[in-house]
Design brief:
By secondary structure, this protein is an all-alpha fold. 75% of the residues lie in helices and 0% in strands. It has one domain.
Length: 310
């Protein structure tokens, strides 16, 4: 039974990762003919409306002012900053490179948990974090010919997304995840509107309507399957599947934009992914050695794997 549940969870995470990549690719493609702020705002209108209906159905709005809890507001602000930085970088750099930068987030979250919350991280995992960031440097290549300043913006986005996940750990128990997701979606939508104040918005044609609908469906599908995966299967079985996003991103980049990573970027991607997989292995081993001391919270798992509301 457990093996069957893990199998379902793995398939769900594969689908979630694919939907996230399709979402990023569709947004990047749409932003070529529509200002970024307008794209974010229109996508947000659809996703926020859907999440609002879900919250109404579940009765989540009954918690009232708790939706304005300081932790939720702080998380939403960090989400807005991280999303703005990442999506701006995504429109200016190859999708495979931007996706590779996101793979460093679990490394950054682990380092932050050790520094902020005092979680025990052994020398092996610290080594994996260090090696992983060396891989990031190969992708960014500061001071070299292949250097891309937009990659620094993507790295900054990863930093704020990691802070978002760390702040989430302080969230009071009992707050519905759907209600929190609604607040975040609303905040990102307002961010798109604010960004649009400095843009010249275009008329929405039929050629825009289809991508906007696809964006919303891809995002909702990504969230749904990610939550299903983290609730159904073992984290150590599910977590490695998120790295398949690099395969999707590289393939989409080649097919749609005719871009592919150079050999140094490819090595950097391999180093980052290997470091992340090694950390998953070490966590699995530590869990087996000390089962009574390890507790994996569903909220933490969801935030680590989903990368909510990009």
């Amino acid at each position: 039974m457990f093996a069957r549940e893990n199998g379902r969870a793995i398939v769900a995470m594969l689908l979630s990762t694919a939907f996230f990549m399709f979402n990023d690719a569709t947004l990047k493609y749409t932003a070529q003919s529509m200002p970024l702020g307008q794209v974010i705002f229109l996508r947000g209108l659809i996703t926020t409306s859907i999440m609002g209906l879900i919250c109404l159905y579940l009765g989540d709005f009954k918690i009232g002012r708790k939706l304005l809890h300081p932790v939720i507001l702080a998380r939403s602000i960090l989400e807005v900053i991280g999303s703005l930085m990442y999506l701006t970088a995504l429109t200016q750099m190859p999708i495979a490179n931007a996706t590779a930068m996101l793979q460093a987030m679990p490394l950054m979250v682990t380092a932050g948990a050790a520094l902020v919350y005092g979680e025990q991280v052994g020398w092996r995992r610290w080594s994996a974090i260090f090696v992983g960031f060396l891989g990031v440097m190969l992708i960014i290549r500061p001071g070299m010919q292949g250097f891309d300043a937009w990659a620094l913006l993507a790295l900054g986005a990863v930093f704020f997304m990691a802070l978002r996940d760390l702040v989430t750990r302080s969230m009071p128990k009992g707050l519905p995840s759907t209600a929190v997701c609604f607040v975040v979606c609303l905040a990102v939508t307002l961010m798109g509107w604010g960004l649009g104040l400095k843009e010249q918005w275009v008329s929405v044609s039929q050629s825009h309507a289809y991508p906007m609908g696809a964006l919303s469906l891809f995002l909702i599908g990504a969230y749904f399957f990610a939550i299903l995966a983290t609730r159904t299967g073992d984290m150590c079985a599910v977590a490695p599947m998120r790295y398949t996003g690099l395969i999707w991103a590289t393939g989409i980049g080649v097919v749609v934009w005719g871009t592919k990573p150079d050999w140094l970027t490819g090595i950097g991607m391999l180093v980052v992914v290997s470091s992340g997989l090694y950390m998953v292995y070490r966590e699995h081993k530590r869990k087996n050695e000390q089962p009574s001391e390890i507790t994996i919270k569903t909220t933490q798992a969801n935030d680590l794997l989903i990368g909510v509301a990009k």
